[in-house]
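Bumping with the actual sequence this time:
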Amino acid sequence: MSVGGAGGGAKGGYSPQNIMALGIVGGLVGIYLGHYAPPAYSFFGGLGAICATVWGADAVRRVASYGLGTGVPSIGMLSLGMGIIAALFGLAVGGIAGPIVAFIVAAIIGGVIGALSNRVIGMGIPIMEQAMIEISCAGTLVILGLSVVIAGSFNYAAVVQYVVANGYIALIFIIGGMGILHPFNASLGPDEKQDRTLMLAVEKGAIALIITGFASSLHEGLMAAGLNMLIGIVIWYVAFNKHYALIKRDAYAVVGTGLLPSAEELQ
């Protein structure tokens, strides 16, 4: 496994506890608001998913800074794999408490996989168990939040009909996983900064809201889908500009490369 990151515990201005609180509280509140609000306000689920995405990206950042390189995408997609299992189980048995049941199940699954990773596979990462619990829970909240955007509810039957049966669950798996894994994967190295990495997570979470907002048009109608997409676009625009400003802050120089040379010029 190739080396990436700083080779030790990641540091940053935002504490893991504060980011965890943002992910858990923001994620669950957004999911429940999206469920109880009228269909036009299902974007609340997407806002919850963005909070969970930031939490998941920070957890990946902290565990991957111990030396994961090619393992960064793998651990991000693993988070959504655990999330799908926990989310569907929680919604199937939990009723109105489904998201909370899913969250608890995700923590158990993450803890088991983290223990296997360290104690059986022997990865030897000090925070592996904790990090796997965090990314499993974050992935579950992302799955639930984006499902609420599309289905307008976290009712099990609605999620199965409007998210699982038509294949949108695969879409959520990819865009949700990218939001969690890509920020650190794009920023890893000795010059990685927490605020820049997490701002990229906000941007990717906003893109997920835009995409699932478009998908929601088949069930919720064009007005709700348009509002979902509009809010996603606004958040993306703000986050993109902020991320670009942080790039310019941290980079030695930002220059334009111009157009690629033609074949004749290369000869």
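The tokens above came from a reply further down the thread. The chain has a mean pLDDT of 88.
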